[in-house]
Amino acid sequence: MDKLANPAPGFQRNPDKVITVESYRGTVTVRAGDRIIATSTAAKILSEPPYPAVFYIPFDDIDFGKLAPTDHSTHCPYKGDASYWSVQPAGEAGKNAMWAYEHPFDEMVEIRNHGAFYTNKVTVEATPG
Which of 10, 61, 94, 118 could form a disulfide with 40 if both were Cys (CB 3.0 to 4.6 A apart)? Predict the structure, then answer.
């Protein structure tokens, strides 16, 4: 099925908006202070100019025992509805620090079951492999 010919309901087509998702070759580690929240060798990089690139980490590589779901949500016309989690070891600074598109538009299926973190709330380290 051609995803561009048959976009998902709610997906906004914009020829000037190019979003790419690629595998990252290396290790991505997310920390709150000295506590590791996530570490992955299967992270993806989502590029959506003019925004900075963002690492999306598979749920299997995230320690959800250090996170708490929140009621916060946002909507992206290109990715879908995002859910948020607070990073508990970061305290108030970690509020809504991780987001994920649990049911993204078909056009962004590559980031399903992956979480991304705000770099101003936690430390995200990328080590090329």
Answer: 61
Tokens of 36: 């590791």
- pLDDT at 41 exceeding the cut of 70: yes
Domain positions in the chain = 20-128
Element holding 37 (H helix, E strand): strand 35-40
Averaged pLDDT score across all residues of the chain? 91
* Rounded Cα distance, 39 and 87, in Å: 14
Long-range pairs of 43-46 with CB within 8 A, sequence gap ≥ 24: 43/114, 43/126, 44/110, 44/111, 44/114, 45/21, 46/19, 46/20, 46/21, 46/111, 46/116
Kindly state the helix (H) or strand (E) to which residue 46 belongs, with its residue range: strand 44-47
DSSP 11-33: PPP-TT---EEEE-SEEEEEEET
pLDDT at residue 5 is higher than 60: no
DSSP letters spanning 55-115: EEEEGGGB-GGGEEEEEEEEEETTTEEEEEEEEGGGGGGGTT-EEE-SS--GGGGGGTTEE
